Structure formats: structure tokens, C-alpha cells
């Protein structure tokens, strides 16, 4: 195993506790869903053992994910197979847009303001709207740079700030931008040496490439899914989110051919080897260029 991969795995295992279920969701969402969505338990064990996670911990995590409605499981002979449920696929489809697609660039100059109705499920509605990218200016007043939510238990207003500095102050009040940026900075610190190793031409195997790819997305999504992805005009300058995205995309696309090579050779579904990736897969980090081609050893 390459030294830069060992470094990432050491850092991963310094976290307490190890959330095997969350990592399994990343494996499926990033690598398996684009290739048919089904993976054998034996193939998953091969991947998770490389992450230094025991078969027992994997089975426990899978049992919980099935019980909670995120995965479904079935057997063919003595072999077990898993895939995300419809609920799990919907959740990762929403996350996919935020992780891999280009963030919004243009802002039209006005905010979408939602005044929540004083109903019984107001807390649930706030949580749902927050997940859709709305920030809070008060207990009942939510804000977004563009209309995202459809009709609901709220009154929709349009607000146009007096000037751009005022708009930025509203953004800083509505979203924890300093906390979000610190997440991006930690991500940059964690993976800057990985990028440097690839730029130096450090050798790696196809399994190394898959492990780094999965850890990369696992850690990047922890930052980006907390980010409302505001247009650049509303963000502080400088903003670490752009650098984090560029670094993530460069590493991801550089390692992608080798990582897919491991899946081609070793990963199996209930119908044999995994099928090829779907059409949308090629659009991940579409605007970011990989490093010069690197071949796995």
C-alpha cells in the first residue's frame, strides 16, 4: 500500500468512533450506484478490510442500515447482496448534486424569504427547508438566494437588499459560514499531501486508488453537505470552499480510472461483474481537470 494511502487510513482511524455504516453508504453512493447499485457482501468485505474494518463491524453496520430502511438485502445461494432502498437512493441522489455538480455561479440580486406558519410540524418543516439550503434569520423567517422550496406551510416573500455588502451581512447572519469554511480548511489540510504525492508521481495500486477515492468523497461530503452553496457574490473573500472543490475534483478524476479498474476486476453483483457506469457518471466534477494521467502499478 502506498505511503500516502497509509497516512490517510491512519488519520481515518484516529477518529472516534469509526462510523462503518456511514462509510458503507459512501461506498455504495459513490462507486456502486452508478454501476447498477448491487454489491455482494464478499466484495464489500474486500473493500472494508482494506480500510482496516472488520467483517463483524461491517455486518453489524449493515444490519442496522437494513433495519433503518436504508438498504435491502437478499441471498442467492450462500451469497448475500445489498443495495440502497428507494429512500436511500433518493437521499444520495440529492447529495450527488451537491457533491459532484458545479455550484451556482450567478445571483439575481434578491432573496427568497419564507415566513413559516405557526403549525404543529414547524420544527420538521424548518429541518426540511434547512436541508434544501435555507438559512434562518429568525425562528420563523428563512432565507435562500433563490427559490428552492415549492408551496408549503409558509408565506413566500421576495426581498432585495439595498446593496451587496448588506446582502453579504444577511448571508453571514443566516448561515454559519465561518464554521463551514473551517470544515473546508480541515479538508484541504487532510488532502493537500495526497495531491502533492500524486503530483510527484508516487506509485499506487488500483485498490489504493479506490480507497483514496472513497475516503476523499466521504470527507468532502461532510463539508459540502453543510454548505448552502451560495453564489460567489454572497461569500466572504477568500472562500476555502472553491479550493476544496478544486482539490477534491483533481484527486478524484486523477484516481478514477485506476479505481474503476479495481471494481472491474474484483467487484460483483448478483449477476456477476458490475456493469459499466451510467451516463451521468462522466459528468462528475466536469469542469475540473485531472493531473497528467497516472497508471496504477
Description of the structure:
The chain is of the alpha+beta class and 297 residues long. It is globular and about 60 Å long. The N and C termini lie close together (11 Å). The chain contains ten helices and nine strands. The model has no long low-confidence stretch (mean pLDDT 92). 51% of the residues lie in helices and 12% in strands. The protein has a four-stranded antiparallel beta sheet, with helices on both faces. It has helices spanning 3-13, 20-32, 41-50, 55-67, 86-100, 122-131, 164-174, 177-199, 206-224, 240-266; strands spanning 39-40, 71-76, 79-84, 111-116, 135-136, 141-144, 154-159, 268-269, 272-273. Strand 8 and strand 9 form a beta hairpin.
What are the key terms here?
Phenylacetic acid degradation operon negative regulatory protein PaaX; Arc Repressor Mutant, subunit A; globular; 3-stranded antiparallel beta sheet
Estimated helix fraction: 40-55%
Strand order of the largest sheet: 5-6-4-7
**Named CATH topology of the largest domain:** Arc Repressor Mutant, subunit A
The overall strand count is 9
**What is the 3D shape?**
globular
Pfam family, one: PaaX_C
Protein name: Phenylacetic acid degradation operon negative regulatory protein PaaX
Domain Transcriptional repressor PaaX-like N-terminal: 19-88
Organism: Microvirga ossetica
